[in-house]
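User: Hi! I'm working on a homework problem where we have to compare a predicted structure to a textbook description. Could you give me the structure for the chain below?
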Amino acid sequence: MELLRAGCEFEISGGLREGFESVVSIALAAECLSKNCDVAAKEPVKEKNAIFGGSVGSRAWAEVVKTPPDKNVKPQAACDFKSTKDAEGVTHLQVPDGFLQRALEKTNLALVGKFLGARPNVDTIRNWAIRRWKPKGDLIITTMAKGFFLARFNLQYDVDSVLLGGPWCLGNMGLFLKKWYPGFNPFVENIHAIPIWCRLPGLPLHLWDDEILLHIAKSIGSPIGLDGPTRNRSRLAFSRFCVSIEMDQELPDNIVLQSKFGEWNQQIEYEAFKLRCSKCHRLGHFSSKCLEHTVQKLEDFP
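Assistant: Happy to help. Predicted structure tokens:
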């Protein structure tokens, strides 16, 4: 085989004996094209099965070595990207709407979630989600930074069902969940409101009423609902309801209920969160790590 450059032609000999040399020459030809050499084939190239794995007919050499286009990518002029540099030399690239729309189509039915208290692996999350959410369509779980994960669906029904079917818990870990939005950044995302289950152990039966329980729930956060055994009184050891609370709010340990039968000091227990400070009554840290308590101790120090 002979490889000629700068206006000459590439020629592949007919024998299989020179198959190895042909493969090497193909690589050299591709390198030549990448360096903008003046490469042309005077005659169409006869491609051999030994090199390409099948008979593909006769094509110009430039067509043989060029990268095939991605059928899923719609052509768009490169000039649509506007590139500028600021005073510090940093490049600013304006992304056209067409490319943004193509990316958005892959996440328009997506939710972002984060389990509070631990970071289960992706297999655990996937198995849990399939078992609890029971999606009718496809569900793809992908982990993100800072303990977040992305749940991608292909049916709007499944998205609505998951959002309206909460609150959700994995074991004793509550789930923060919201719709994905453009600009979501797990490094700066601030979790404000979260669902949490509350228990009232030993609640007297004369106070066991749905409306009474919902008013107790309002004293803690925004009521979401009662569980089944509480509504039908099939479990009397404790009543149980779910509320939405702010991450930095104080959670009361008890509430005093007054009626014509006297006062009842009702204890309140919180599920799903082991990281609750006994000093400031907030979630996310133990009392030994409480900054508010540390500041108070320093102020009291003579």
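For your comparison, note the following. The longest helix spans residues 19-34. The chain has three domains: 2-65, 104-179, 193-271. Good luck with the assignment!
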